[in-house]
Specification:
single chain; alpha/beta; 13% strand; globular
Length: 172
Amino acid sequence: MPRLQRTLGTWLRHLWLDADDVHRQLDTEAMRRLTQAVAASEAKHSGEIRLCVEGGLPLRPLWHGISPRARASEMFATLGVWNTEANNGVLIYLCLADHAIEIVADRGLSQRVPAEFWRSVVADMSRAFKNGQFEQGVHAAIAAVDAQLSAHFPRALGATDRNELPDAPAVR
């Protein structure tokens, strides 16, 4: 039995919004700049940052009433963010239909960074989005995650690190 706690308007938003709507918020150039920001960040530490933006939920998660946090955790697994060598991957998840922002940090980082820090990053992103600064809000989140990864997992001088995950945002 589905959880019918979502309103009709919520259902319609999820079914209406898709990857095209994501690209209206973040065009090709914005995606290129975000990809470059992730790559530049990862040059300074051994962590991995992954951005995932969904217009709306696919029918199955929508039908089952999955929460944005649960969907972010699902995407954390689906995109392999949990599978980094040092357990220091971070997913920045956005769902346009729910106006949801979630950050999921793997255990290597989450045990070193208090939950309040992640909540403050989400709050900052939310304020930026409300002011119509979508790309700037995502860049600020990448910078905040970068600061934590650089502090806790700095790249050793002269060390090479393989890029374990794609730098480009996952759009769904």
